[in-house]
């Protein structure tokens, strides 16, 4: 089993990555191979809505960026989790550029994400969690993915790097979400 986690923050080692690493720790305890893709390390241009992916070869026409690596990693995974900090009440443009293109190409290529499991997590200083969480959750739903719940929404508070660790309830919710992903994966893929 394989899990891919996408960190939508343009900063390395920030609060979003801390939350994703909590998921990684839990996955690795269950021997799930994991990889973390950081928006801070890659460049993916936004979708141009050219619809080339719907024609013949089901490939994106945009070249010269890291999209193909990200796309193939997500398609090969059984579990896909994305995380974003809140920027003015929404997900970062970095993560949305990736998700938009992955969504369009995968749908054009036979719904490659259908029945994969995963879900979003969100961190913010004070507000905007619900809008951003919903924005990312809509992406999972339209791509026919299976998203387990948790004891609360997958959100946490923090501004400065590391501050999210002080949100004990938020961290516990992320841990429970990761545990639910593991439970669901075991049910779907091994029974």
- Sheet-strand content, in percent, reads 15-25%
Structural class: alpha/beta
- Counting H and I runs of at least 4 residues, what is the number of helices? 5
Q: Order the strands across the largest sheet as they lie in space.
A: 2-1-3-4-5
* Shape type: globular
Roughly how many Å is the radius of gyration? 16 Å
**CATH architectural name:** 3-Layer(aba) Sandwich
Helix content: 40-55%
Low-pLDDT runs of 5+ residues are none
Mean pLDDT: 96
Task: Indicate the CATH class.
Answer: Alpha Beta
CATH topological fold name: Rossmann fold
Please tally the β strands and state the result: 5
Kindly report the name of the CATH homologous superfamily: Flavodoxin domain
End-to-end distance: 14 Å
Mind summarizing the main beta sheet?
5 strands, parallel
In total, the number of domains comes to: 1
- Output the helix-strand order: EHEHEHEHEH
Structure, described:
The chain contains five helices and five strands. The chain has about 190 residues and is of the alpha/beta class. The protein is globular. The model has no long low-confidence stretch (mean pLDDT about 95). Helix 1 packs across helix 5 and helix 2 packs across helix 3 (about 95-110).
Write the layout of secondary structure elements.
Layout: E1 2-7, H1 15-29, E2 33-38, H2 67-76, E3 79-85, H3 93-108, E4 117-124, H4 129-142, E5 155-157, H5 168-190
Parallel strand pairs: 1-2, 1-3, 3-4, 4-5
């Amino acid at each position: 089993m394989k899990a891919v986690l996408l960190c939508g923050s343009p900063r390395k080692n920030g609060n979003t990555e801390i939350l994703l690493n909590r998921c990684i720790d839990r996955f690795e305890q269950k021997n799930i191979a994991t990889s973390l893709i950081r928006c801070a390390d890659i460049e993916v241009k936004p979708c141009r809505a050219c619809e080339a992916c719907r024609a013949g070869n089901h490939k994106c026409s945009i070249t010269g960026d890291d999209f193909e690596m990200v796309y193939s990693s997500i398609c090969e995974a059984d579990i896909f989790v994305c995380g974003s900090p809140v920027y003015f009440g929404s997900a970062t443009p970095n993560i949305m550029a990736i998700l938009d293109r992955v969504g369009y190409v995968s749908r054009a290529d036979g719904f490659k994400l259908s029945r994969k499991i995963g879900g979003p997590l969100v961190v913010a200083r004070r507000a905007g969690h619900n809008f951003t969480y919903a924005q990312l959750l809509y992406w999972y739903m339209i791509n026919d993915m299976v998203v387990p719940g948790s004891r609360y929404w997958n959100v946490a508070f923090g501004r400065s790097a590391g501050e999210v660790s002080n949100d004990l309830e938020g961290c516990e919710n992320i841990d429970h979400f990761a545990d639910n992903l593991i439970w669901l994966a075991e049910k779907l893929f091994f029974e």
